[in-house]
Specification:
By secondary structure, this protein is mainly alpha-helical. It has one domain. Helix content is about 60%, strand content about 5%. The chain has 15 helices and six strands. A hairpin with a 7-residue loop joins β2 and β3. α4 runs antiparallel to α5, α8 crosses α9 and α9 packs antiparallel against α14. It is globular and about 60 Å long.
Length: about 400
């Protein structure tokens, strides 16, 4: 079953990629010439990882582990330790202390090897916990009423590709999303953005936490709670792709039928469901083992500066400028605010239309001004269960359907 699913999803992925680039317009041809050297080959990745997944599914599963929760907790603690050690190495390298540098690099290599050795086991433990929690919520598959889990929960802890987000300058709207290599340097990202901006659009290269390939990409440098949320969110995207909402979102991603509101509903729904499932998993298995402060919320500074409120106000002012046709004024305003945020301890590499187009599709986020988030939260409150909420929204084909459901 798993092999067949992999092949079917690979075929679908090929169709997606062909449609994504086979547009023939002057803009797309120029865009393709800019990004072509950096495009991440999802097909190549699938062809490489699928044989590994087949071998893993056919091999014996690991035996009983005395402390699965401890193993997972230790794995994510090692991520923070590796980050701290890497920071020390960078500081030592800048100081030219070669003897100490060699010692630190040896220790880093050992820690990375230990982490890699437990990675596949951690993946399987979390996959089972996600699958069991979905089952407890009555969420099995999008195709039939049979109690069969589909698509199978399957993800890989690895660094996902970057995403190039493109928005028109005169409004905030994601018009293109292109996957780029995961190892881009800062100079390469900024060179790509500068070249794309010359086409008269706003662009931004962003790092992402995951992408709904099969198996799902989930970045291997996040904390435990964020990893669980991301793994569930990407699975929900796979689930939705077999429903009207998700199918229309695929058409939006492939530029065959663009609908920013459908994209926002889809992304917001996936985020809401994943946070609810992720919270259940975390509370059941890990809350008592994790140290306080391991959540994903942005910390509040002692100064009392409210980042979320500031970003909402920036977005509202930018929308006002753009509605009045004052594009350059809006862009100057965003750059001035970016510098102000940096002075408050919040560094954003770029703040432009593409930034808000990317983050704006998550309408339930604290910085969003889109009423879709409020409407979906209201509908969740009216729904008898998470499953009911998921399937009600998954059947929608327009923003009007959401409004009608609330009425």
């Amino acid at each position: 079953m798993k092999i067949i699913l992999n092949l079917l999803l690979l075929i679908g992925l090929l169709v997606f990629l062909v449609s994504q680039f086979f547009t023939g317009s002057s803009f797309d041809n120029q865009l393709d010439s800019i990004v072509k050297p950096y495009v991440f080959s999802l097909v190549g990745w699938e062809l490489g990882v699928i044989p590994q997944e087949i071998r893993l599914s056919l091999s014996n599963q690991p035996g009983n582990i005395d402390d699965e929760i401890g193993l997972v907790t230790e794995y994510f603690q090692s991520i923070e330790q590796i980050k701290a050690l890497q920071t020390s190495i960078d500081a030592t390298r800048a100081g030219q202390e070669k003897d100490e540098l060699a010692t630190l690099e040896i220790e880093l290599s050992k820690m990375q090897a230990r982490q890699a050795a437990s990675e596949s086991t951690v993946e399987m433990i979390l996959e089972r916990q996600i699958r069991e929690t979905l089952t407890e919520q009555g969420i099995f598959n999008p195709l039939a009423r049979l109690k069969i889990n589909f698509p199978p929960v399957n993800f890989k802890l690895a660094k996902p590709p970057h995403i190039l987000i493109i928005s028109p300058r005169d409004r905030i709207e994601s018009s293109r999303q292109i996957t780029l290599e995961s190892d881009l340097s800062l100079d390469e990202m900024e060179n790509i953005e500068a070249a794309v901006d010359e086409l008269g659009v706003s662009s931004l290269v962003v790092e992402i936490g995951g992408i709904a390939t099969y198996p799902t990409f989930v970045t291997n440098d996040m904390n435990l709670r964020a990893t669980i949320d991301t793994a569930v969110e990407e699975w929900v995207h796979q689930y939705l792709s077999f429903k009207p909402l998700g199918f229309l979102y695929l058409l939006d991603l492939t530029h065959l039928r663009q609908d920013y509101e459908i994209a926002t509903i889809n992304e917001t729904l996936a985020g809401m469901v994943s946070k609810e499932i992720g919270r259940l998993i975390y509370q059941k298995y890990y809350a008592s083992r994790e140290e306080a402060g391991s959540g994903t919320e942005i910390p509040t500074h002692e100064s009392g500066f409210d980042f979320n409120r500031e970003m909402r106000e920036i977005r509202q002012q930018v929308d006002l400028y753009l509605a009045q046709g004052e594009i350059e004024r809006a862009e100057q305003f965003m750059e001035a605010k970016r510098q102000y945020l940096a002075s408050q301890g919040y560094y954003l590499r770029k703040l432009n239309q593409a930034y808000f187009a990317f983050h704006g599709t998550y309408a339930d986020s604290p910085t969003s001004v889109d009423p879709i988030g409020r409407e979906l939260k209201e509908l969740r409150g009216q729904s008898a269960s998470l499953k009911d909420f998921l399937n009600r929204v998954a059947a929608m084909t327009s923003r009007q359907a959401l409004k009608t459901s609330l009425e």
